């Protein structure tokens, strides 16, 4: 359990990195980079990007190794070393799958809509809390989730309307990406069940590092070789890693963007797990504000990088997207009891259970230290 100052720093880093990494990732996946012989090529390598996510997470193995050297001076974790590395494979595999699916969706979805769809995690987190954790959700919770889904639907329909009006060739892929985003957050909900157990018995740094190690191993030796031998028409499954190497050789800008992406996603994943270990309730509340910051950063990115004949960032569909964002935030605030509707009765027990989750985590941590 970290100090209040540590938690504030983690929240700030979560907002900064969580706002930057999807915009940078979207730019990498959709922008044309110098290839060879004067040609340009889009960097459409979702599995390689997932590899870079895991690569960034492995840097947290450095403090883990230092901590292992000083184990005589610290309280040992309940699960550590090879035992933790062995049991963490399941959430690591799920993490690889949902990150790859989300990265694929980012090739076709506007980044601001993609971020709004991330609120689906609230729905699956609530569902799995009832199903597997035995927690009880009240009518007010389901009401908030209802508004979240309605808001996401508003934003998704607005994005489809824009794509149809522009007669985009990727309208079908856009709709398919909506479905994959929902599937990705279902997998993310399952992964959080395993991570919840790991974080109760080990520290965040070690869990992050081990997840990254498993990710590098599985992607490098299983997923990437498979993607390189599939047929070219299988978009999202077929990749040519050699093309990515050529792009890196001919584009310094791509290398810089990848470094920024790796740093941002690594610190975002760490802070996300750290805040989740303290309070999953508050962590999801913090992330509810990310669509606003992502929208702002994507707008400024559009201003600085827009080219001739590029579409306008704001049009009449933007009003529907903004309405979807507002409705989603409204639903999240109801779910997190920031907004209390006068038509509902809120028991003191229900409010205390949700408002004091950090204090409960602190007490559990202190008890573990005493043991």
TrEMBL record:
InterPro entries: EmrE-like. Keywords: Membrane, Transmembrane, Transmembrane helix. Coiled coil: none annotated. The chain crosses the membrane at residues 7-28, 48-68, 80-101, 144-162, 174-193, 205-226, 253-276, 288-304, 316-335. GO terms for cellular component: membrane. This is EamA domain-containing protein. It comes from Tritrichomonas foetus.
């Amino acid at each position: 359990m970290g100090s209040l100052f540590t938690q504030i720093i983690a929240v700030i880093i979560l907002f900064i990195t969580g706002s930057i990494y999807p915009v940078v990732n979207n730019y990498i996946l959709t922008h044309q980079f110098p290839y060879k012989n004067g040609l340009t090529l889009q960097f459409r390598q979702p599995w390689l990007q997932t590899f870079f996510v895991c690569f960034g997470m492995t840097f947290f193995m450095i403090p883990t190794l230092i901590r292992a050297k000083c184990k005589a001076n610290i309280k040992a974790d309940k699960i550590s070393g090879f035992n933790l590395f062995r049991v963490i494979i399941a959430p690591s595999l799920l993490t690889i799958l949902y990150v790859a699916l989300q990265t694929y969706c980012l090739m076709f979805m506007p980044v601001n809509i993609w971020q709004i769809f991330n609120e689906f995690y609230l729905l699956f987190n609530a569902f799995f809390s009832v199903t597997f954790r035995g927690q009880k959700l009240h009518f007010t919770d389901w009401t908030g989730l209802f508004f979240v889904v309605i808001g996401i639907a508003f934003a998704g329909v607005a994005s489809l309307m824009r794509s149809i009006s522009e007669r985009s060739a990727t309208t079908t892929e856009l709709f398919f990406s909506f479905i994959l985003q929902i599937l990705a957050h279902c997998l993310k909900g399952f992964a959080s069940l395993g991570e919840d157990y790991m974080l109760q018995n080990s520290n965040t740094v070690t869990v992050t590092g081990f997840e990254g190690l498993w990710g590098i191993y599985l992607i490098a030796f299983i997923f990437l070789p498979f993607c390189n031998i599939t047929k070219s028409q299988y978009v999202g499954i077929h990749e040519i890693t050699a093309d990515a190497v050529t792009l890196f050789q001919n584009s310094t800008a791509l290398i810089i963007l990848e470094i920024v992406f790796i740093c941002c996603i690594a610190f975002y994943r760490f802070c996300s797990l750290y805040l989740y270990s303290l309070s999953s309730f508050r962590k999801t509340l913090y992330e509810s504000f990310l669509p606003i910051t992502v929208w702002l950063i994507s707008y400024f990115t559009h201003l600085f990088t827009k080219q001739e004949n590029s579409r306008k960032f704001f049009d009449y569909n933007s009003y529907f997207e903004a309405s979807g964002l507002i409705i989603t935030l409204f639903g999240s605030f109801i779910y997190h009891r920031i907004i209390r509707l006068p038509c509902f009765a809120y028991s003191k027990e229900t409010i205390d259970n949700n408002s004091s989750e950090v204090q409960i985590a602190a007490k559990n941590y202190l008890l573990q230290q005493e043991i």
